[in-house]
Design a protein that fits this description.
It contains twelve helices and 14 strands. It has 350 residues and is an alpha/beta fold. The protein is globular, with a radius of gyration of 20 Å.
């Protein structure tokens, strides 16, 4: 048996979940980086979120060449074919006909993974990331250290500047509707102590987080009604106080930062990004701290006024959309400017 074949004979213990939306090039780069992981016991699932741009075919073409050379197998499944399927191949590509959002796409991957009783954890990884050989090892080691820990996050480093940290954890104050990224702008050599970060972190960075099976079984899947943003905050809050969150400093992951949704930290967010960031601030407050809703609504109104003063009437209109949709219970998906459903309809369907 060749060394590659021997590696593939190891039963998977960690599933890797990746969501693709019209960005096959970045997803393939992510998959290529995963080929060098030190962990042989992994099964990878990519959910294509109804891209409609040939992404599934591009991913399959890559797998046909790159994976065949290493003796790794893959398959393409339609969303309707999932059933009780388990991840028997190294790579499974799920072709969804709809854009299910970040949580919805990941949930398809998680359901597939947990159909295999041997899977102990699921690594949720953004498609616009690239990893090092020991990125997963460090996550697994930190999660194993603390039996109360449900989710563990990585050290995100900017892909365009591999010396600068994007985030090691997130901090969020529901009552104020505001937060920030811990560690942003630091270097790998100047990271704060782990216990100092974990004492103040609210949630792990969503671009790379390892969730234990115990956590998922107890808390449930990610909340799909957010569609984009705040899913990891919601997941973390639902797990408290039974489960804690942690940080694995040695799990370095390079992040291209918003490649799939057209936004980054150096300019005004894309319309899609701005809308969901705003409307979900109020939604998460209503769910976990309802008394904070009036203050957050007022803050969003002030944000809209500032955009208007800057001459960005489109952004101001998006703020109005967010506030109006929250009040009416509408839930916009995908091409949000033209599509909306009520939250009640979504819940009935799920």
């Amino acid at each position: 048996m060749s060394a590659d074949a021997a590696r593939m004979a190891v039963a998977p213990r960690v599933a890797i979940a990746i969501v693709n939306w019209r960005n096959a090039a970045d997803t393939i780069a992510c998959l290529e980086s995963l080929q060098h992981l030190a962990d042989p016991d992994v099964a990878v699932t990519v959910c294509d979120n109804g891209s409609g741009d040939g992404s599934v075919e591009k991913l399959a073409d890559w797998a046909q060449g790159a994976l065949a050379q290493s003796g790794r197998t893959f398959r393409v499944l339609q969303e309707s074919d999932l059933g009780d399927a388990a991840p028997r191949d190294y790579l499974t590509i799920i072709a969804s006909q709809r854009n299910l959002g970040f949580a919805g796409g990941n949930n398809l991957c998680i359901r597939l993974a947990l159909a295999d009783q041997g899977i102990e954890a699921v690594w949720l990884l953004n498609n616009d990331t690239e990893v090092l050989a020991d990125s997963l090892q460090a996550l697994r080691a930190r999660l194993a250290e603390d039996p109360q820990m449900g989710i563990c996050g990585s050290t995100l480093v900017y892909h365009h500047d591999k010396t600068t940290v994007q985030a090691v954890a997130g901090r969020y104050d529901i009552a104020r509707g505001s937060g920030g990224e811990i560690g942003q702008g630091l270097t790998l050599a100047t990271l704060p102590p782990r216990d100092q970060v974990e004492a103040q972190m609210s949630y792990p960075p969503g671009a790379s987080m390892l969730a234990s099976r115990r956590f998922i079984d107890a808390v449930g899947l990610m909340e799909e009604s957010y569609f984009l943003y705040f899913e990891e905050i919601d997941w973390t809050l639902r797990g408290k106080p039974r489960f804690t969150v942690g940080w694995a400093p040695g799990s370095v992951v390079f992040h291209k930062e918003g490649g799939s949704i057209g936004t980054n930290a150096r300019g005004r967010p894309s319309d899609l990004s701005l809308y969901y960031n705003l409307v979900n601030r109020v939604r998460v407050a209503r769910r976990f701290q309802p008394a904070a809703v009036p203050l957050i609504v007022a803050r969003l109104a002030a944000i809209g006024a500032r955009y208007l003063l800057k001459g960005d009437s489109r952004a101001a209109r998006i703020v109005v959309h967010a506030l109006s949709d929250f009040r009416s219970g509408r839930y916009r998906t995908g091409a949000w400017l033209s599509a909306s459903r009520t939250a009640r309809q979504i819940q009935k369907k799920n």
